[in-house]
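Bench notes, afternoon.
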Amino acid sequence: MDMITRMIVKVREYQRGQTMTEYALILAAVAVVVYVGYETMGSDISSLLGRVDSQL
């Protein structure tokens, strides 16, 4: 019975680590998309922020 309990605990710990890795990969993908979007539309965003700032 102890062997089965140890196996269940190992499986649960493995799943937690796997989930954390998945979150890290999703966060990295979002960061890449945001960076590419900023590089692509950086000057447009800067001019838009400048216009908003001048109107305020």
